[in-house]
Amino acid sequence: MTGQLWLTHGPNLVVLGGDGRGHTLWDGATKSHLVGERDGQVFFAPGNGGVPFNLCYQVDPNDFDAVMGLVRAKQVGFLVVSAEKPLCRGIVDYVRLQDGPPVFGPSMDAAHIEGSKGFAYKCFLRWGVPTPESVVTRSIRKAHKTLKAWGPENSVIKADGLCEGKGVELPETPVEAYDVLHRFMVDKVHGKAGETVVIQRRRKGRECSIIALTDGVNVCFLPESRDQKLFNKRNTGGTGAYSPVPDIGEGTLEIMRRVTERIVAGLRQAERLYRGSIYVGFILTENGPEVLEVNCRFGDPEAEVIIPRLHSSIDLLELMLATTKRNGLAKVPRILPTTDDAVVSFALMSKGYPGDYKKGLEITDTGKDNALAWVRHAGTKWSFNGKVWETTGGRVAHAVGRGKTMSAARRNGRRRAAGFKFKDKQIRTDIGLEAVR
Q1: Can you tell me the distance from the alpha carbon of 154 to that of 177, in angstroms, rounded to the nearest whole number?
Q2: What are the two backbone dihedrals, phi and then psi, of residue 220, each rounded to the nearest 5 degrees?
Q3: Which of 4, 108, 296, 426 is the most exposed place for a label (fewest CB within 10 A)?
């Protein structure tokens, strides 16, 4: 689809990350002809327990010098960045200045569309992107005034900066709203990321996201998905996801695609050329889709369900490399071909998540990955030189199921989840249930 592309800096790859999205991208990369035809290896940094111990390197993705050291030592021809923080801090620009290999992801200027929700909102207004009314402020007094006028139950409070999916709160009472603002702006639980807040009018409707690949001009769409965030009445980074989303018609999907293309075009016109993957989160209101957020990378847990739905003719790594080239996606279909299968993921979570939780719990897995069900590791690590798994995060892993129907996919995913065990494991069992027909 893209013409002949090769890894000119070396035969190997590094996926920077350690979550379920990173594990999914690592798995996809290992199946690419770009790796297989040159006997290349795919490394994961810092990685997790889902990837062989000898392929994981304890390199912090935000330590750019250490990343470049790994790139040079391992003859890396392509760097895939799976998380938002290094992108927003400028890793793409840094590697380019070091005359390094191509990097999958946007420049720092382009990634700012996720790095600051206030900046994104101002862009949406300028570009005519439908989005809920918002107030962006560093003044706690102005924030209180806005919440009093709108009502806390009609508002969403967001930290302006990056908070790893934990900077969004939905207060129901004035006391809850006051507590959120105090934690964000006074206690600074999110550091500088919460010094500015975005108060957004709360919309009624179902949420849905769309993810695309872009070379800055051409945009190619992956299938839609819906993640489900609430757990124990608290917002999380995502407790699971499913695809397809049967309550969304083709007409609505096309509106979402055109809005996404408008955002890419707006960034290009603002001289913030956007290359890589772009995630646009929508809420489906009675007036049509409205944008809630834009992320500068694949979603997590959305990646776990949309990538497996791509048709076997699609070489994801080749398309990712093509995003780094001028008009690299020009010959690729606007809507990437997919299978008719349903895919659903269940987050396997530590007790206490999304609040405080224990780490270092031993993991056992009596299940087996197969074509219908598998596990993507997230908050795990190898211990005792690659002999034992331990938990390191709140979302420990994602059990993924595939099936001809959503019911079959759910059944396969839950069976796989049952075999992956650690103390006080939590799971939201209703993921995808609303899509069962």
Answers
A1: 11
A2: -125, 125
A3: 4
* Domain 133-201 CATH class label: alpha beta
Q: What is the CATH number of domain 206-322?
A: 3.30.470.20
Q: Are 18 and 47 in contact (CB under 8 A)?
A: yes
Amino acid in position 353: Y
Using an 8 Å Cβ cutoff, are 244 and 342 in contact? yes
- For residue 199, which of 171, 218, 222 has the smallest C-alpha distance? 171
Task: Give whole-number Cα distances, 24 to 64, 90, 268, 332, 353, in Å.
Answer: 23, 23, 29, 22, 22
Q: Taken in order 378, 383, 389, 390, is the CA torsion positive or negative?
A: negative
State phi, psi for 282 to the nearest 5 degrees: -115, 155
Q: At 103, which helix (H) or strand (E)? A: strand 103-104
- Structure tokens that stand for 328 in this block: 């690299």
Categorise residue 166: left if φ over 0, alpha if ψ from -120 to 50, beta otherwise: alpha
- Out of 3.40.50.10420, 3.30.1330.60, 3.90.600.10, 3.40.190.10, the CATH code matching 345-427 is 3.90.600.10
Q: Residue 15: beta bridge partners?
A: 44, 80
| Placement of tokens 């790994």 in the chain | 70
Partners of 381 in the beta sheet? 390
* Chain center to CA of 7: 25
Any idea which fold 12-104 has?
Rossmann fold (3.40.50)
Cis ω for the linkage preceding 354 (within 30 of 0): yes
Predicted local confidence at residue 3, as pLDDT: 47
Q: Identify any residues that bridge with 213 across adjacent strands, giving them in sequence order.
A: 220, 277
Domain ranges of the chain: 12-104, 133-201, 206-322, 345-427
Q: How many whole angstroms separate alpha carbon 350 and alpha carbon 362?
A: 12
Q: What residue spans of 2-90 are helical by DSSP H?
A: 20-30, 33-36, 64-73, 84-88
The DSSP line for 138-191 is S-HHHHHHHHHHH-GGGEEEEESS--TT--EE---SHHHHHHHHIIIIIS-TTG
The string of pLDDT tens digits covering residues 267-307 is: 999 999 999 999 999 999 999 999 999 999 999 999 999 99
Claim: this prediction has a pTM higher than 0.85: yes
The segments of the chain whose pLDDT lies below 70 read 1-7
Q: Tell me if 206-322 shares its fold with 345-427.
A: no
**C-alpha to C-alpha distance for 402 and 372, rounded to whole angstroms:** 5
52, 116 contact by CB (below 8 A): no
